[in-house]
Design goal:
The chain is mainly beta and about 170 residues long. It contains two helices and 13 strands; from the N terminus they run E-E-H-E-E-E-E-H-E-E-E-E-E-E-E. It has a seven-stranded antiparallel β-sheet. The chain folds into two domains: about 5-85, Elongation Factor Tu (Ef-tu), domain 3, CATH 2.40.30.60; about 95-165, SH3 type barrels.
């Protein structure tokens, strides 16, 4: 069962061919990094063995999950999950986007302005939803070096450029 702490790492979009292959849209940085995850499972907790993988694009891969198309059709639309402990080790200064949820957002002066309430990455860059403290309004900002000045995972703080904070 996909429980607390697990992260959605991809989705099976459709069957491919007649021999049990499916197309996966990886939510990781690349399809290659998706393949380095030690254990991937479905929402109901069933571990999925990814056989004979083929990377098609930076975010798309084809893998064998069963023996025929009829069985593969049952996987259509299924989300894939993993625990961070099954991911490849990170280098210093790297972190998973999902770990930013709940962090305090501060302005350039260090004053708290809100909390990160969600993260999104639709392929053209990551975005953060920040729930502002003074109004409970949710603002979305692009996660890039112009808007995000610093991320301190240990302290749970993200420092934002003042120009990107709506008042």
């Amino acid at each position: 069962m996909a429980g607390p702490g697990c992260i959605c790492v991809g989705v099976i979009t459709k069957p491919v061919g007649v021999r049990g292959y499916v197309k996966i849209r990886a939510f990781t940085e690349t399809a290659d990094s998706f393949l380095k995850i030690k254990k991937v499972f479905l929402e109901d907790g069933v571990t999925l063995q990814l056989l004979d993988p083929m990377v098609k694009t930076p975010s798309i891969l084809i893998v064998k999950v069963c023996n025929d198309r009829t069985a593969a059709e049952l996987f259509r639309g299924k989300r894939l999950f993993a625990y961070p402990s099954d991911f490849q080790p990170l280098d210093d200064g790297e972190y998973y986007l999902e770990t930013l949820v709940g962090m305090t957002a501060v302005n350039e002066s260090g004053d708290a302005v809100g909390r990160v309430s969600a993260t999104f990455d639709f392929g053209a860059g990551a975005f953060l939803d920040i729930t502002l403290s003074n109004s409970n309004e949710v603002v979305t900002i692009q996660f890039n070096s112009m808007a995000i000045l610093d991320v301190n995972i240990e302290d749970g703080v993200i420092r934002l450029d003042d120009r990107f904070i709506l008042r």
